[in-house]
Amino acid sequence: MSIAQTKFTGAALGLRKPIGALSLRGACMITSALVAFSTSVPAAFAGDVVWDGSAGVAWATPANWDTNAKPVATDDVKINSGAVPNQPRVTSGTTETVNSVALSVGTLTVRGTLNAPVTLTGGTLSVEKVAAVFGEVTGLVTNSAGTVNNFATLADIDNQSTFTNAAAGTANAVTNSGTTDNSGTVDSLTNTGGTFTNKAGATITTTADVSGGTLDNQTGASVGGQTTITATGIVTNAGTMADVDNSSSFTNNTGGTAAAVTNSGTADNAGTVNSVTNTAGTFTNNSGGVVTTTADVSGGTFDNALGGSVTGATTITATGVVTNAGTLGTVSNANSFSNSTGGTTGAVSNSGTANNAGTVASVTNTGGTFNNNSGGSVTTTVAVSAGTFANKAGASVTGATTITATGVVTNSGTLGTVSNANSFTNNTGGTAGAVSNSGTADNAGTVASVTNTGGTFNNNSGGSVTGAVGVSAGTFANKSGGSVTGVTTITATGIVTNAGNLGAVSNANTFTNNSGGTAGAVSNSGTATNAGTVASVANTGGTFSNNSGGSVSGTVGVSAGTFTNNSGASVTGATTITGAGIVANSGTLGAVSNANTFTNTATGTAGAVSNSGTATNAGTVASVTNTGGTFSNNSSGSVSGTVGVSAGTFTNNSGASVTGATTITGAGIVANSGTLGAVSNANSFTNNTGGTAGAVSNSGTADNAGTVASVTN
């Protein structure tokens, strides 16, 4: 073969394709060029190798490349013509290694192994499986404007255009800012833009970091590691996720499950999450949304909407806010909690600001304010050791309310029993059960009963106690307009003051019935003063002072102690003195029956006096019946009616007078140094020097050293 017929290849010259048969002149020129080239070009010259597909689709066929040689590890491959007759394919069972692959048009199919980074500015990369053999690209795939379809194995991919990972496809780290559909398995995801759709059956085995665009984890899809959402990232979930840290936007749809969710952005849940830690932003637990364990809210707002539920404890600290219209477990609030109409919670511990218009199981208030608003219900107990519990009109507490330390309770609604050791106010319209008080209590509403063991209970105007009041210590002050229907019992060191209306009173310590005060029957063995009105008095010990303006509308019975009826005071009914009873009168008494000690002072007036004890009179009595003992009618003493003496002694002293007839029978004795009317004596009558008497009828023993009007013996 002559030089003119020789076929040269361009591989050694760095030329493309065979140069064919040359003329002698041309061959000589090439020969000269070869000599020159051999002295100036390195033996291992590397350059771009371009696919032309002139001999088929096989990557391994040299004739398919513009160099007429299969690319090697140092070559940069260009696939840049979609008009070539065949598109390149790395066939199953083969391994190709090059420095890089740049795809701008056409389609590169990988069924074997391609060891190279691949950059797409157009065209399609398809990684496929043949039988049981998976195609694989081991280098980074950078897709800026092309399409990547993976049915087999990819290493890392940076997708800015379109990427589909099929059900059998696996990829390592995926960075996405384009459109990615995953039905297979990826190791991790970094989403900076665009949309990553994790479809049914798809898995992200480790982490998902979403700083832009959207990750849509659909029903049946899963993310095994933590999902972190930052900047403008958006995640929607209807599948299964591990932990989620959201500072942008997270939506857990119906059927979606997530483990621990940390939120400082915007989160919506209609599915199931294991727990919530809210540090800022808003977490809305919508209808159907379930938090299976705890919700910790240190910032932002956790809104448990109607139909939403939290099974475990909800803890609110720092600047956290929780609103509830659904169902919560226990709540510990140190900032802001609102339980709306229809909302239900377990036990609530509050040291912040809490508002309830729904239903809570119980309240422990250790600080701050708990407002139980209209419609709000606490189904069991309330314990207030600090701060304020305000039970508003239309609100209710079924169980006991206990107030200790610095706790404050105000009530305009309905309470059960109340035990108060600090401060309790029952406002107008408020109702409470039995109240036990050792602190400060004010009532302008209605309570069932009061047990006062210390402190002060003020039953103010409009305040009503429908049952009994027991006061063993401290003070119960029944103010003007206040009322007690049941019995008021005062024992030990208890004190009761009354300017309103009381029922019966049993006093063993201190009772004061002020001007305007009314009381039922009073039983006294302590110290009692009256400037108002009582129905009756039974004095069994101590002292009862009926002061000016004081009125006993019924009877007075004194079996022990002293009843003093002072000037300006009155007793309408009979006064009965028995046992060791003592009565002193400077006011107005009705009838008196005395079997121990009765003193009627100069300003005192009394009705008919029946005496069998010791009686002295310097005032006015209507009549005297002396059946025993001694009655001394002293100077200025006046009996305006009759005197009957059947036993004992009636002494009418100097300056004393009896207007009516004096009748002496039985063992009766009368001694007179004052002024008597007519005298009928059947036993013993002595008219002393200075004594005057009217007509004397005598059938007994009579002595006269004074003056009598006449004698019939």
**Total strand segments:** 84
Which spans have pLDDT < 50 for at least 5 consecutive residues?
1-46
Mean pLDDT: 94
| Percentage beta strand | over 45%
Proportion in helices: under 10%
Return the structural class: mainly beta
Q: For the CA atoms, what is the radius of gyration?
A: 56 Å
Report the major sheet: 82 strands, parallel
SS element count, helices: 1
What coarse outline follows from CA principal-axis ratios? rod-shaped
The termini sit apart by 202 Å
Description:
The chain has 1 helix and 84 strands. The longest helix is centred in the first third of the chain and has 15 residues, at 24-38. The radius of gyration is 56 Å and the shape is rod-shaped. The model is unreliable at 1-46 (pLDDT under 50). The strands form 2 sheets. It has a 82-stranded parallel beta sheet that branches. Strands 10-11 form a two-stranded antiparallel ribbon. By secondary structure, the protein is an all-beta fold.
Key phrases:
single chain; 713 residues; mainly beta; 82-stranded parallel sheet; two-stranded antiparallel ribbon; disordered N terminus
